[in-house]
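Hi V.,

Quick status before I head out on leave. The structure for the redesign project is tokenized and pasted below; the design run finished overnight.
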């Protein structure tokens, strides 16, 4: 759980920081994704907001339940991990369809897609115990 806890904190705090930065328009223009000012692409980006916040809520809830020795932590952790991977997959799929291969957007989304896959089996096993 120690390693999973690190990834949950990194990801969940990261989502909250990203959305605050996005809301406040802090990201310099040269780091924005292609066609960022297009209203459709802006709406596409904001469509991730509820999912990403739900990921943070479930991640933090899982950590809280684990600390309280509540066995439901693994159910909530599994939800968080699956949603995280889905969030990364959606973004990567979009960039592939657009033939847009900017590493500054691919790397964080590949992280979201892949890291949960390493923890899902052990969380499922923990839940079955």
């Amino acid at each position: 759980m120690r390693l999973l806890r690190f990834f949950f904190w990194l990801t969940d705090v990261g989502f909250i920081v990203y959305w605050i930065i996005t809301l406040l328009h802090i990201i310099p223009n040269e780091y924005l994704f292609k066609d960022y000012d297009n209203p459709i692409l802006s709406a596409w980006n904001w469509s991730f907001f509820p999912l990403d916040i739900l990921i943070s809520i479930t991640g933090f809830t899982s950590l809280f339940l684990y600390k309280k020795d509540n066995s439901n932590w693994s159910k909530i952790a599994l939800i968080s991990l699956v949603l995280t991977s889905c969030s990364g997959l959606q973004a990567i799929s979009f960039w592939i369809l657009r033939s847009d291969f900017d590493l500054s957007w691919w790397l964080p989304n590949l992280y979201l897609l892949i890291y949960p896959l390493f923890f899902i089996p052990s969380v499922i096993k923990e839940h079955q115990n």
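Above is the designed sequence. The helical segments are 2-23, 39-46, 49-67, 73-97, 103-128.

G. will cover questions while I'm gone.

Best,
W.
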